[in-house]
């Protein structure tokens, strides 16, 4: 079953064989990033399905269908073919048909992005389901997927990185694994023999605080303290790049009337997006609110005749989006997934893909005091002095969605007359 250069750790081997034990109805693999749980689970899922069933349907679920293809199928498909499996994908139908050992089965791809996603899987009859990134999916979608597995002998396969200790999946499934007849296997980076010590050290170096404890140590832990605790607002801001042309310009905008409005101006040079300037208006401090048209005037002054690729705007600001469109600005609705956005922003700052310049005093001021809310499960930021942080997050999610489709999908505003696009 092995190919040249591929070895499995004891925990990965347990994943590959757990389904042979009739004691278990489900498998839960949780823990650190890059710990080898996704590949071993995906391989075991296909081997189990083809060994035990013929002519059945199965579900492959991720945060998005694109993430299913990227995280599961991209690496797994060549290896499955090397074992002799015949895989045929109909991308338009989100379907993979597999023939192996005289059996043929269908694998349906589903994305559990939000609460509405549960309707996509409703009505399917499945012999088993694999949920990758389970903790990032809404509970309604996960429970609907579970309910679809009504075929005798069906089993549930869960894979995820940890979130906060109050997360519903941790409380209802991880802590109660045996009640569900679920085998729980907790992974660390040491369980992935393909990961070099140098790569392990890089991950240890790149994370801190709650993200370190979750993604490197694999703990279900509450987030506490500063959100961007790795970023020193005195040490890390950079001066503006030397005079010269920029390759592109964009703006991120958090809109507010009673609350402050914050706009960030971003310029691309040599693969790095610099926040070169910003606009910040607090109506409470100034004693007067501004209209959409006045904010649009301010944005025109901020951009100062530059050719703007797009303005990424707070998705709730429908009237402001319309005013900008009429002014000739290309606009896009921002992704407002807060926790994902914070993760993406932290990664891009660490990688120096986005850089904050010392000219952006309000953004740096907010970053210094941007903290997790200690109430609840501690997985949400305190909602105060966070307007530049919101527009920063909008920009990071837009960039991530454009480049990797990993956490966000760019939603360009579609106006009347654009329906045919």
Structure characterization notes:
By secondary structure, the chain is α/β, with parallel strands linked by helices. It is built from 14 helices and 15 strands. It has helices at residues 10-17, 37-52, 65-82, 118-121, 139-147, 168-174, 197-206, 209-215, 283-286, 292-303, 318-326, 338-350, 361-369, 387-403, and strands at residues 26-31, 57-62, 86-90, 95-100, 103-111, 128-132, 155-160, 182-187, 248-254, 261-269, 272-281, 308-313, 331-333, 354-356, 411-412. The strands form two sheets. An eight-stranded mixed beta sheet has the order 3-4-5-2-6-7-1-8, sandwiched between helices. A seven-stranded mixed beta sheet has the order 14-11-10-9-12-13-15. Helix 10 (292-303) packs across helix 11 (318-326). The two termini are 47 Å apart. The model is unreliable at 405-421 (pLDDT under 50).
CA-based gyration radius: 24 Å
Please state how the strands of the largest beta sheet are arranged side by side. Answer: 3-4-5-2-6-7-1-8
Instruction: Give a quick account of the main beta sheet: strands, pairing sense, barrel closure.
Output: 8 strands, mixed
Helix content: 25-40%
Give the count of helical stretches. Answer: 14
Q: TL;DR of this structure?
A:
By secondary structure, this protein is α/β, with parallel strands linked by helices. It has helices at residues 10-17, 37-52, 65-82, 118-121, 139-147, 168-174, 197-206, 209-215, 283-286, 292-303, 318-326, 338-350, 361-369, 387-403, and strands spanning 26-31, 57-62, 86-90, 95-100, 103-111, 128-132, 155-160, 182-187, 248-254, 261-269, 272-281, 308-313, 331-333, 354-356, 411-412.
